[in-house]
Amino acid sequence: SGPGDLAGRRVVVSAGGTREPIDPVRFIGNRSSGRQGYALAVTALARGAEVVLVSANTALPDPAGAAVRRVGSTAELRDAMHEESGAADAVVMAAAVADFRPATTTPGKIKKTGGAPAPIALVENPDILLELTRGRAHDGQVVVGFAAETDHVVENGRAKLARKGCDLLVVNQVGDGLAFGTADNQAVVLGADGSSTDIPTGPKEDLADRVWDLVAERLS
Ligand code: C5P
């Protein structure tokens, strides 16, 4: 692990949270800051990787040296991931993707009518991570997912890893001020090979470096 071990490797990282338009001014979103994804990009750059960062609605400055693609909705994130993942040695889905989106985007701003508000019908979004593992661009491409769990972290994580078909699943323990929007993160990284790596509470950069250690092992 460490400086240079990702030299010549191309990695694609998604970060932030998607926004699903309701009308021209409103959206369904989430509280993801993008900091974990950016930490992954910055640490991969420091280890010599060529980095594409697909950034959904973050307020963070572009990391020097990364190719940054800014996206808004899940549909845009999905297109960018499919375009960029083909040539990637590793793909990390750190973005918080909306599970549902409004079935239609109202072309004009929705107005009060005095009566009961119209319900917003939702449809399920495609699971981008699942699409990426099913359509793996080449043998040996390492695909990493993220999950946030409040309870039975390892048990739920194992089931999700199997369902998503990824090589590594970074399972965040959420609640108690951890994860979303905070500087620190605590996680267990589960491997499709049955491995389990505990990562103590610490900066998101440290977690990112541990994830790249595990990715690098699987690339070589
Ligand atoms: O199923 P869940 O949302 O917990 O899975 C989280 C993981 O799946 C994250 O890596 C996230 O980026 C990815 N995901 C996705 N497309 C979705 C939902 C989640 O790629 N529609």
Instruction: Please count the helical segments.
Output: 5
**What small ligands are held by the chains?**
cytidine-5'-monophosphate
Determine the fraction of residues in helical runs and give it as a percent range.
Answer: 25-40%
Q: How many DSSP E strands?
A: 12
Strand order of the largest sheet: 5-4-1-6-9-10-11-12
User: What kind of sheet is the major sheet?
Assistant: 8 strands, mixed
Describe the 3D structure.
It is a single chain. The chain is an alpha/beta fold. Helices cover 27% and strands 30% of the residues. The chain is built from 5 helices and 12 strands. The chain has helices at residues 35-46, 74-85, 128-134, 153-164, 204-219, and strands at 10-16, 20-23, 26-28, 50-56, 67-71, 90-93, 100-102, 122-124, 142-149, 168-173, 184-191, 196-203. Strands 5-4-1-6-9-10-11-12 form an 8-stranded mixed beta sheet, with helices on both faces. The protein has a two-stranded antiparallel ribbon with strand order 2-3. The protein is globular and about 60 Å long. The termini are close together. The mean pLDDT is 93. The protein binds cytidine-5'-monophosphate (C5P). Its cofactor is FMN; Mg(2+). It comes from Murinocardiopsis flavida. Its EC number is 4.1.1.36, 6.3.2.5. One of its GO terms (cellular component) is phosphopantothenoylcysteine decarboxylase complex. This is Coenzyme A biosynthesis bifunctional protein CoaBC.
